[in-house]
Amino acid sequence: MKKVLVPLAPGFEEIEAVTIIDVLRRAGVEVTVAGTEPGVLRGSRGIMVEPDTTLDTVDAGSFDAIALPGGLPGTITLREDPRVLEAVRRHHASGKLTAAICAAPTVLAAAGLAEGTRLTAHPSVQGELAAGGATISAERVCTDDRIVTSQGPGTSMEFAFELVARLCGPDKVAELNVGILARV
Predict the structure, then answer these.
(1) The model's pTM
(2) pLDDT of 41-91, one tens digit each?
């Protein structure tokens, strides 16, 4: 069974976080939602989510992928958290899948992964990524080797399905979509 870590900080984008978690779990992926702090976290639109655990209790190296939801101020918290940055660096260095949506590709940049990489992100942070040496793609979901990025809440389903495809294969995407009915 594939395993994915979803770090969550207060101010996360609810559509992105829940879509990633839901679609991956439907695909049979073991998803661990790890909060930057203990307890229930409030998203950017006031929706409360209780993570499975905290970042302090997980071994990020034991996961097949890390998927970072965006949202503000959640992305800023993730990007300033040394635990997240170290996990992203180590994870990527070990050849595993690293994914980020909306403003969260800035976390990848803060971890030193943007330079020379083709990324997409929310338009509000694309300039920051370009200044950090990334090549900005207009694609809704962009894959560059082991990094998958996406633009925002409206691309969440496509992003989640790309993660399923990368982790479980295209047949699992087709199987899942029989019930979900997304445009993939």
Answers:
(1) 0.97
(2) 999 999 999 999 999 999 999 999 999 999 999 999 999 999 999 999 999
Active site residues: 102
| Element spanning 43, H or E | none
* Tokens at 5, concatenated: 């870590």
Tokens of 63: 């996961």
Instruction: Provide, for the chain, the percentages of residues in helix, strand and coil under a 3-state DSSP scheme, each rounded to the nearest 5.
Output: 45, 20, 35
- Does domain 3-180 correspond to CATH entry 3.40.50.300? no
pLDDT at 140 (0 to 100): 98
Give the distance, in angstroms, between the CA of residue 12 and the centroid of all CA atoms in the same chain: 11
Contacts of 179 (CB under 8 A, 6+ apart): 26
pLDDT tens per residue, range 109-123: 999 999 999 999 999
Contacts of 67 (CB under 8 A, 6+ apart): 4, 5, 6, 20, 24, 99, 100, 101, 163
Residue type, 141: V
Report the C-alpha gap between 28 and 135 in whole angstroms: 33
